UniProtKB/TrEMBL annotation:
GO molecular function annotations of the record: polyphosphate kinase activity
Alphabetized InterPro entries for the sequence: P-loop_NTPase, Polyphosphate_phosphotransfera, PPK2-related
Name this polypeptide is given: UDP-galactose-lipid carrier transferase
Organism from which the protein derives: Bacillus cereus
Recorded coiled-coil stretches: 18-45
Residue ranges constituting the Polyphosphate kinase-2-related domain according to the UniProt record: 17-237
Keywords of the record: Coiled coil, Kinase, Transferase
């Protein structure tokens, strides 16, 4: 991945109509539900890493990804600052404890990449620590992908102006005001420093086994559909690469011949 790719992202991408969005959303969600059941049967774990600007829409994307999944087969881990007892260990220790079981899907809302983003910019980690972290993270992810894990890494990119618009809307809406903090406003003042950290993160951790996917997110509807589409492709590509044959009911769903899965049992999977 070349340098300065954030500037090359086309943030004008959008879904023109809500009806078109709803049709594609339903189709993608049904395919992902079917894939979830196949993952369970094949004992393959999926880790979805979501990073991005504040107010870029990670929460909305997570909701649409998980909305129709079987709750027994996925987990969402919101990641904040490490607790005092977690600081006594290597920074990756707390993530090891949250890995998905074989056959499960886990989403990380923020992740170990905080080491090379917020901890770098806010100087919670020394330059030696965050520089060393690139190699540690690559080794961590390679160890997992060598052992039946699929890793999808997403960065939700919005413009500076779009972020300001969303921050202002949150402040003016009593039901959303809890989403905005003084820290969010302070982070805006360091936009350029974060851009530099993000660029270095891509340059050092975009690997064939765990690629970054930059999601243009000025339009939330586009970002949600793109997220689902990429996740589906990652799983399908893994199955193809490892000669795992997709069952007939999945191909019927993909081709639009099967409109829905009645239940987990309908797919022949026992949880």
């Amino acid at each position: 991945m070349e340098k300065e790719h954030l500037a090359k992202v086309d943030l004008t991408k959008k879904i023109e109509s809500k009806s078109k969005y709803n049709k594609k959303l339903e189709k993608y969600q049904m395919r992902l539900l079917a894939l979830q059941q196949i993952l369970k049967e094949e004992k393959i774990a999926v880790m979805i890493v979501m990073e991005g600007w504040d107010a870029a829409g990670k929460g909305g994307a997570i909701k649409r990804v998980t909305e129709h999944l079987d709750p027994r087969g996925f987990q969402v881990n919101p990641i904040g600052a490490p607790a005092p007892h977690e600081k006594r260990y290597h920074y990756l220790q707390r993530f090891w404890r949250k890995l998905p079981q074989y056959g499960q899907i886990t989403i990380f809302d923020r992740s170990w990449y905080g080491r090379v983003l917020v901890e770098r910019v806010e100087e919670f980690a020394t330059k030696e620590e965050w520089t060393r972290a690139y190699g540690e993270i690559n080794d961590f992810e390679k160890l997992l992908t060598d052992d039946h894990y699929i890793i999808g890494k997403f960065f939700y990119h919005i413009s500076n102006d779009e972020q300001l618009k969303r921050f202002t809307e949150r402040e003016n809406n009593p039901l959303k005001r809890w989403k905005i903090t003084d820290e969010d406003w302070r982070n805006r003042e360091k936009w350029d420093e974060y851009v530099e950290a993000i660029e270095d993160m891509f340059a050092n951790t975009n690997k064939p086994n765990a690629k970054w996917h930059i999601i243009a997110s000025n339009d939330k509807l586009y970002a949600r559909l793109k997220t689902l589409k990429v996740i589906i492709s990652l799983i399908e590509d893994y199955f193809l690469e490892h000669n795992i044959e997709l069952p007939s009911y999945y191909n019927e769903i993909k081709e639009g011949k099967k409109k829905k899965i009645e239940s987990v049992q309908d797919a022949g999977v026992k949880w």
